[in-house]
Amino acid sequence: MLSYKPIIDQISYKGCRISVLRLDLLHPQISGNKWFKLKYNLEQAKHEHKDAILTFGGAFSNHIAATAFACKEAGFKSIGIIRGETTSAGNPTLSYAGENGMELHFISREEYKLKHETAYLKKLEQQFPNCYIIPEGGDNVLGQKGCEEILNIETDMYSSVFCAYGTGTTFKGIANSLKSQQTLTGVNVLNYEALTDLPRSVILNQYHFGGYARHTQDLLNFKTHFEKQFSIPLDYV
Q1: Which residue would you say has higher pLDDT here, 208 or 77?
Q2: In what order do the strands lie in the sheet with 102-107?
Q3: Are strands 77-83 and 183-188 parallel, antiparallel or unpaired?
Q4: pLDDT in tens, 163-192
């Protein structure tokens, strides 16, 4: 996969000087933390001589879309285990995944809850021989290892680091690579209380707007205003 060179934009917002690490510019299709989460997982799949990558996601999962493209580029077949109904297959995210060769399999929400169960994963391995399984969102040790590379020498000057908190993979990876003078704040995007026992880190649980992909008109208005003022695209999801 491509090499990582940080791009940092400086903005001033409500009297605060903020530096924005533009991971959205890292790659046209595999941007943001997705690139870091997939990096070592794909390397491991090649090391194990696997033919296909199997992973999990909802109907609007950016992880699913990024994995489909990354697998196409790396020469793997891709299989997506999708939470929900087949009626979602035509939405932009899953259409994109399908266009990049991902084989989509829709399962019920009840079955989807089994995605971490050993017996269920063994069943999938039998159904899809010689596949390498990546958890939802790239949430495993190798995904976390990749996220440890988000901060580097060009970000050492900062004292406070903020990131979104979903599966927690990115948060944990960044926490492991903090410098002694740095603190980390995670902004939880899910409607449950997340806690951390990692040093110099805290999670804010009150800014999820009802849960993953939920939004209000105020949030959309802020998104529009911010993008017009700073020319930095935001994702309400």
Answers
A1: 77
A2: 102-107, 77-83, 52-57, 131-134
A3: unpaired
A4: 999 889 999 999 999 999 999 999 999 899
Residue 97 identity (one-letter amino acid):
A
pLDDT at position 28 over 90: no
With a threshold of 0.85, does the pTM exceed it?
yes
Q: Report the C-alpha gap between 31 and 27 in whole angstroms.
A: 5
Helix (H, G, I), strand (E, B) or coil at 107: strand
18 strand-pairing partners: 11
Angle made by CA atoms 206, 211, 213, in degrees to the nearest 5: 125
Q: Is 125 exposed, middle or buried (0-12, 13-18, 19+ CB in 10 A)?
A: middle
Q: What is the DSSP letter of 126?
A: H
pLDDT per residue as tens digits for the range 93-120: 999 999 999 999 999 999 999 999 999 9
Q: Are strands 16-21 and 102-107 parallel, antiparallel or unpaired?
A: unpaired
- Give the residue ranges of DSSP H helices in the chain: 33-47, 62-74, 92-99, 109-112, 118-127, 141-147, 169-176, 217-230
Q: Which residues of 15-47 are buried (b: 16+ CB within 10 A; e: fewer)?
A: eeeeeebebeebbeebebbbbbbbbbbbeebee
Please measure the distance between the N-terminal and C-terminal CA atoms of the chain and give it in whole angstroms: 26
